[in-house]
Amino acid sequence: MSEHSILKNMYLIGVFKLQKYEIFINPKTLNQLNKDIWMDEHVQAVLKIGNNQYSIGLAYRGNVIRKKKKKSFNIIFQKPFTVNGAHEVHLNAEYNDISLSRNKLSFDFFDTIGVISPNSKHVLLYINGFCKGIYLEIESFDQFLLQKRNLPMGPIIYATNYYANFSLLSPKKKLKTDLLEGYTLKYGDEDDLSHLEDLITKTNTVKNEEFEEEITKVLNVDQYLTWLAGVVCTQNFDGFIHNYALYRNSETNTFEITPWDYDGTWGRDLHGKRLDHDFVPITGYNTLTGRLLHVPNFKKKYCEILSYILESQFTVETQIGIIEELFETLKPHLQMDPYIKRKGNSLDSEKDVIVNFIEKRNSYLKQQLIKLQDDKVYG
């Protein structure tokens, strides 16, 4: 039996049916939400999933997406306080992503290579009985995620803008007045931010001969290098100075890093425009990465990690089945999304875009890997 026949049979038996999420909200409250799309205060609503109903706080989320017709939502569970171990989830519209899938493909890819990543799944959203289309439910990276994964508790800090570049200088090359500029504490105490200041200070001030030893006291270097390989493979241009969260493991007292907001990946930018496969260099962009890769042992480790991923995970052979199964899940529901004017064959075309990107990006990175190992990448 062909792969296509297998996928078709899986759909017929219901494997590819999206779960239905129904939100019920007072029309006056919904009008209030729509009149002030920048309001971050949550309003009262009810979420029904199957036979279960939950009292929730509902708000719009994101920046650019709030101006679009199809908006993204943030949900806080109120009664009960947690659902399936989560207190907060996000429903992303994925409006600029023709595949509706680049975020999910990225999170799943990072999880596969060993980087903490939020779980995600597509759902079919209704509000007051009207279908609002396909959304991607994304787990919040918070203390509840740590509990679900049986990870040690520790502070979580979000990189919320481009100032989160691990540097003493702003993106405009001006001296920062606050090392914590660009960061928001998600979980923990204000005192926990001093550990992030320590990381940034060490990154920028420790002498070369002391850096290898000192940085390992505050950063899980192997985990960071694995994350770096993931960003480089998926080619998230913003991922080095934005679109990440830091978690300080209380057992090791070192920071670990996780991806966030990865729609600008797999050959497209965050607006959905095509990007050349060599747009992002193998060495990334931020100050911390630059210093790490100038340490021979760290550079060697990064090359080993990236080489393994390029041979085993970031390949057409590994990813194509994942992509096809995900797209077959979405195809039957595209016509139900009032904001989508395309048909199922648009996903077939987008599959070709992603597969072509993986093939070319893999080849490019393998070539750059040889140069990096020979130190030619630092001209």
Automatic annotation (TrEMBL):
Organism: Neobacillus bataviensis
Keyword list, A-Z: Capsid protein, Virion
Name assigned to this protein: Spore coat protein H
InterPro entries: Spore_coat_CotH_CotH2/3/7
Entry-linked Pfam families: CotH
